[in-house]
Structure formats: C-alpha cells, structure tokens
TrEMBL record:
Entry's Gene Ontology cellular component terms: cytosol
Role this protein plays: Catalyzes the conversion of 2 pyruvate molecules into acetolactate in the first common step of the biosynthetic pathway of the branched-amino acids such as leucine, isoleucine, and valine.
Key words, A-Z: Amino-acid biosynthesis, Branched-chain amino acid biosynthesis, Transferase
Assembly notes: Dimer of large and small chains.
Protein name as catalogued: Acetolactate synthase small subunit
Family classification: Belongs to the acetolactate synthase small subunit family.
Lineage: Bacteria, Pseudomonadati, Pseudomonadota, Alphaproteobacteria, Rhodobacterales
EC number(s) on file: 2.2.1.6
GO biological process: isoleucine biosynthetic process; L-valine biosynthetic process
Pathway assigned in UniProt: Amino-acid biosynthesis; L-isoleucine biosynthesis; L-isoleucine from 2-oxobutanoate: step 1/4; Amino-acid biosynthesis; L-valine biosynthesis; L-valine from pyruvate: step 1/4
Amino acid sequence: MAALHIKKGSTKHSAYNLRPNFSDTKERHTLAVMVDNEPGVLARVIGLFSGRGYNIESLTVAEVDHMGHHSRITIVTEGTPQVIEQIKAQLGRIVPVHGVHDLTVEGATVERELALVKVASSGDKRVEALRLADIFRANAVDSTLESFVFQITGTPEKIDAFVDLMRPLGLVEVARTGVAALSRGI
C-alpha cells in the first residue's frame, strides 16, 4: 500500500486550498449594461452598487434603440476580481437587464469623455490658457472678458491632465459627462 507523503507546511494537496487564486489588487473595469428604457431601472442598477458598498467612478446612460426602447448604461468601477465578477453576476439577475459586458476583459476599447472647463483669468494667464487649450485641442465655446469655457473630449486621463494644467491659470468649475465606451472591431 502506497502512502501519500506531504511535506510539513505544504498546502498543495490540502482540502483548505480549493478556493481559486483571486488577487486582492483592485482593478478598474468598464461595464456596458443593456437595459429596458423604463422608469426605475437606473435606480435599481445604482441601488445594487450602493447597497453593497461598491463605488461608481463614472456613469453614463442614454437610450440607444428608440424603437426597442433599450438604453445603454456605461459604468466605470473599481474592485478586486472577485468583486467585479460579483457585480456582473448581480447585474445580470436584474429583470430589465438584457446583457452585461465587461469591456475591460473583452479586448481593446475606445473610451471618450466630454468636459466643460471654466477658467477665469487675465493677462499672461489668459494667453497661457488659450495656448494650452490649443495643444489639447479644446475649443472655447464661451468667452467673456474675464473667462472662457472650454470644451474638451478625449480619454479620462487627457481630461484630468488638462484640468490639472488649468488649476494655476484660474480654474473655476468643471462639468464632465462620464465615460462612453465601445469595444474595438467587430
């Protein structure tokens, strides 16, 4: 009769080591959720996040199929792999949800955001704000003698960089749309 010898301290063959190897590192994920466009659906989706203590970094919602009355909710969230899987599973169980896609794991994506950035400055700071706006391809959509409102589109990181550069030049206010994202290719 053959005996099984396990080194002391080894958990390789232990019954207590059956849990999958999930990381405790938080990851940023972009989720696309297709839902019926009806009252209360967004509140139910948001309720799922708030009720379990999950954070939403960005949220955009719009009707994408007028004939079928379907909306697309794009959510950017952060969590461990276990938390992200739990979020996707729970979203999929909500009745008016037709599909949940984790764009982060499905491959390359295109992400864009729009921001309006108000800057109040004069003299050299005003000139510098215009110069930086030109570099970032931001458009001045409103102008007074004391301020500008710039419109900028791009990745969230690009918008963050533009806003950070506008702070010392007289940043007054920022309004952001949140991330809109699609997977690349077919």
